[in-house]
Amino acid sequence: MKSKGSSSKTVEHSRSAKTGRYVTEEYAKKHPDTTVTEHEKITRKK
Q1: How far is the C-alpha of 45 from the C-alpha of 4, rounded, in Å?
Q2: What is the C-alpha separation between 34 and 46, in angstroms, rounded?
Q3: Bridge partner list, 42
Q4: DSSP letters along 2-38, please?
Q5: Closest Cα to residue 42, out of 11, 15, 12?
Q6: Contacts 24+ apart (CB under 8 A), 31-37
Q7: Residues of the chain whose pLDDT is less than 50?
Q8: What is the pLDDT of residue 5?
Q9: Residue 17 pLDDT
Q10: What distances in angstroms separate CA 15 from CA 8, 11, 24, 45, one per listed residue?
């Protein structure tokens, strides 16, 4: 029998590299040199 893995989802958050504050996705695309996009894995608990 196969074991079911927990389904996971990835969420992206963009931050300013200068201030550390969250910025919009639109701002991050316009300023790629000064923003960092973080990928956070969200897992579902059974």
Answers
A1: 12
A2: 39
A3: 9
A4: PPPPPPEEEEEEEEETTT--EE-HHHHHH-GGGEEEE
A5: 11
A6: 37/12, 37/13
A7: 1-3
A8: 53
A9: 96
A10: 23, 13, 8, 27
